[in-house]
Structure formats: C-alpha cells, structure tokens
Amino acid sequence: MKKIKENGLSLTFLVMFLLALGGQAIAGLALFNDQQLVDGGEPVSIFKYVASSDFAVDVAENWQSEYLQFFLYIMVTVWLVQKGSPESKKVDDAGPGSDEEQLVGRHARPDSPTWAKVGGIRRQVYSNSLGLVMGLVFVLSWLAQSVAGVASYNSQRLLDLRDPVSWGTYATSPDFWNRTLQNWQSELLAVLSMVTLSIYLRQRGSPESKPVGAPHTWTGVEN
Is the domain of 116 the same as that of 189? Predict the structure, then answer.
C-alpha cells in the first residue's frame, strides 16, 4: 500500500491511459467496420484493427502533439517567463541557472545522480535529458504518424480507384497537415490557458496552483 500511495499519481494516469486507449480501440473498430460494410468489405476483428494503419495513425497523431507540447514547454520555460504564473520561473531567474543552483559538479549532493557529479559530455547530456527524450518521442511519433498515415491514405485512394502516393507526397499534403495542425493548435491553446489562467485562478491543494491567498503578481510559487 505504501508503494501505491507513493506512486499514486503515475499509476492513476497509467490506468486512465490504458482505459482510454482500450475505449478508443473499441469505438474505432465499430466505426471502421461500419465503413467496411459501406465499402462492401468484411468486418475485422479488434486484433486486426489495432494492428492496422488506421488505428496507428490515430494514436500516433495524438501522441506527437502531446509530446510536442511538453517538449516546447520544457525548452521555452528555460528562458521565457510569465509574471504571476506558478507555471513560470521567477522573472529574474530566466536562463539555465548556475552550477550551484543546479547542484552539479562540486556543488552536487551525496545523493545526487551520478551524471550530475561528473563533468564533460555526460553532464551535458543529463542536464538536457528531459528535453531530449521528449523531443525524441515527438519526432518518432511524428514519423510513425506519417508512415501509418500514408498507408491508411493509400488504402482509401485504392478504394476510390486512384493511384497511391509516396511518403514524401503525403507528408506535404493538406490531409496530413490538416490532421497534424488540428492537434498542435489545441495543445498550444491548453498550455496558454494553463499559464495565464493560473495567474488569477486557484485550486486549493494543487501543486499546479498558487496558494489561494497568494497575490496575483506572485510568480513561480506553487502550493
């Protein structure tokens, strides 16, 4: 029970993610099979559907937009600030910070990660590892979306008795960018809303909110 309590946030979101992914698979299968019947095809099993390009492109396009959001927010908040927002560093703290502030090198604690204590390329990599991983997952998800997307797109073109297109043609097509930018704009709006609304609004007990009685001008202060 102690382990569950200590990891309750990640476990809860993992369960909700799996439930949402399963629900998407079930709903997507029903929609896919309905279209199959309209096109004169045969319904498919859920196992065949989740292995299809149609399911893969829907999942990947959401993942890439989410990781783009996190990657951009992690990187731009190193240098950019928003006065009054708990999602921002204090106005005078913009930048990567000193070694003393970051507890690296000779300023590292005994329980600091090993790569924070050493110098050279290992410290540089570890110092930027969160942004690097988020950026890598975004790129891989974007590529997966484009590869699965061109397969799904070409399947529909063949049903319409049209020639398939190459990956490069699809990756620069209105269909691909319409799907992509729909997700990007919603993620960027969500970040904008969180950054600005948290200046004036509160949620008691949440680490994403300032204390209820904190002045609106307090910046980088969380419960």
Answer: yes
- Per the structure, the count of domains in the chain is 2
Task: Encode pLDDT of 165-198 as tens digits.
Answer: 999 999 999 989 998 998 999 999 999 999 999 9
- Mind giving me the DSSP string for the chain? -HHHHHTHHHHHHHHHHHHHHHHHHHHHHHHHHHHHHHTT-----HHHHHTSHHHHHHHHHHHHHHHHHHHHHHHHTTT---TT-TTS--GGG-SS--HHHHT-GGG--TTS-HHHHS-HHHHHHHHTHHHHHHHHHHHHHHHHHHHHHHHHHHHHHHHTT-----HHHHHTSHHHHHHHHHHHHHHHHHHHHHHHHHHH---TT-TTS--TTS-TT--S---
Tell me the per-residue pLDDT of 18-75, one tens digit each, with 9 for 90 and over: 999 999 999 999 999 998 888 778 899 999 999 998 899 989 998 999 999 999 999 9
